[in-house]
Amino acid sequence: MSIHLDGPWLKDEHGRTLILRGVNLGGSSKVPATPNGATYNREGFFEHREVSFVGRPFPLDEADEHFGRLRAWGLTFLRFIVTWEAVEHAGPELYDEAYLDYLEAVVAKAGEHGLSMFIDFHQDVWSRFSGGDGAPGWTFEAAGLDIRSFQATGAAIVHATHGDPFPRMIWPTNGWKLAAATMFTLFFGGDDFAPATLVDGEPIQGYLQRHYLAMARQVAARLARFPHVVGYDVMNEPMPGYIGNRELHCPAGPLSQQERPSPFQSMLLGAGVPQEVELWDSSMRPRRVGARVVNPGGASAWLPGHACVWRQNGVWDRDADGRARLLRPHHFSYVRGRFVEFSRDYWRPFCNRFAAAVREAHPAALAFVEPPFGELGPAWGPDDAPRIVYAPHWYDLITLYTKRYIPGVAVDLTKQGPVFGLGPVRRHFKAELLAHRSHGEERMGAPTLIGEFGIPFDMYNKRAFRSGDFGLPERALARSFQALDDALLGGTLWNYTADNSNARGDLWNDEDLSLFSPDQGRDPSNLNAGGRALRAAVRPYAVATAGEPLHMEFSYRSRRLVYRFRHDPEARAPTELFIPRLQYPLGCRVTVSDGVYELDLEAQRLVYRHGVGRQEHEVRVEPA
Question: Under a CB-based contact definition with an 8 Å cutoff, are residues 84 and 183 in contact?
Fold first, then answer.
C-alpha cells in the first residue's frame, strides 16, 4: 500500500482516505534480548557494550504467527520499535550488523503478511541507565557521567539498581533528574548551554546528534527497499532536559513522584553535595508528602577525571568558603538576548535535520514528528521539511496512572481539574484528540496519527490474571478506541509484547500494556489465543474511504457499527471496511444508504460502492 498526504488526511494510491489502526511492536524491544535485559534483572546490567537486540520483538521463526495474528485482528499498521542502543551499543560507529540483518528480515516478513509500518526510534528518559531506554551507555561516558553512581547520587531511579517493588510510573520523574536532564540538554542544546564541553575536540551537541543521525541512516538504508515501510519517527517523547527552565531552585515536572530535587539540587547531588530533597506523590493529585536527605555519603555522578559539566559551563560554583552558589539562574532560559522555547528553538530544527538525514537513504520516507513531552507539536512552516505526519500520544491518564478503571471520571490537564459523568468524559476525550488533529492541520500542515494510546492490563493488582475476567480492562480499552473513532483518527496501540508475562508484564519497569500474552494462552492454530480484551480492540472500522469520513461509531456491547462519509469523485476505488469474525461469528446484517456492497466474512472485508444520487453515504453493520 502506498501512502501519501492530502491536507489533514493520509491517502492511498487510489485517492482513498485511510484510517490506520495497529500496534506498537513491541514493548520488550526497549531492552536487550541477550543477555536478558528485562529491567528487573541486575545481572550484567552495566556491561552495556556486550548486548544484542536480535530477537526483538520476537525470534524470526515466530514472525509468521505474530504477524498473522495482527493481520487477523485488523491491526495492520505497525509502529515498529528500534532503539539507538540496539544498533550502536558497542561504541561510536560500531554498528551491530547482526541486528540490522535481523531487522531487515523481520520487516520483510511483515510485508509478506500485508502489514505496513513506520520505524520508531524509541527512547524514554534517554536510556536504560537513566530509568528508561534508548541511547547506548557510551553516550553517558562521552558526557563524563558514571552510570554506576546514579542510584547513590539520586541522578536516576533505575529498576535494576532500585529493586522490587519498583515505583509505578516513575519514568516521568527521571526525566527531570540529573542523568536524563543533562543528556537531553547536551543533545539538543549543548552548543548554547555547554559550549565548554567537548568530546575529542568536538562540541558535544554535534557529537551526539551526528551519531544519532548516522544510526538512523543505517536503519533507513537497510529498509528503503520495502514499500511497506512508509517512514520514520524522529524520536519517541523527546524531553527538554533543563532547556527553558527559569527556576533552577524549584522542582520540575508536573508528574514527579518520590524524590523531587530542583535542577540545582540535582547538580549538587551529582557533585557529591548531600541535599534534603522534597518527596512528592502524584498518583491522583501532586502533593508534597515529606523530605529526605539524598547522597549522604557524598558520592559523585561523574567519572574519574570529569567534573560537573554545569559547573564547568558556569551555571554554579563554590565561593571562597566552599559553599555552592548558583551563578546563572537563567542559564537555560535566556540565550542571545531572548527567552528560548524548546519546541521552536531546539526540537523543530532537529526534526528538520533528522528528515534530511533519513531521506539521504530513503528519499520517499515520511517523517513522523511528535510533540515534546507534555506539549503540542512545533509550528511548521514552508521552510521546514515536507511530508510530515503529526504523531502525538494520548492516554486515559487516570486509568494509566492509577491502574483503575473509573467509568465516569477523567482529568482535564488544561484546566487542572476533574471531569465527571459518562457523557462529559466521552466529550472531553474527543475534544483532547480533536485538539491534536486541529494542531496538526492548522499549525503543522500535517495529518495526525496517534502514535500511542492504551491501558494497563494489570489493573487492580492483576485481578484479571487471577480471575480470567478481563471485563474491566475491556471496558477501559473500548473507551480509548471509542475516543479515536469519535475523532476519526488512526492510531497504534501501545503495545504488543510477544514475551509478555503476567508476572513481569512487558519486561520494562513492570509496565503491562500488552494486548497479547502467552500467559493468557498460546496456540498458533487459534490466533485469538493469548489475546486480552479482544472484544474492545478487534473492532470494525473504515480502512479506506472513497471520500471524507464524517462519523464512525462502534458499540462493543451491541456490536453495531455506523459509518458515514462524503464521497470524493476523484477516488478511484470503493470504500473498504474491516469486519472481524470475532465480532460476528454468526454473520452480520449490513444496511447501506444507497449503492451496493460485497461482504466476505472469511476475508473480514466489506467493499462498498456508493451510489451517484447523493453526496453523503452511510453503512450500518450489526450481528445477524
Answer: no
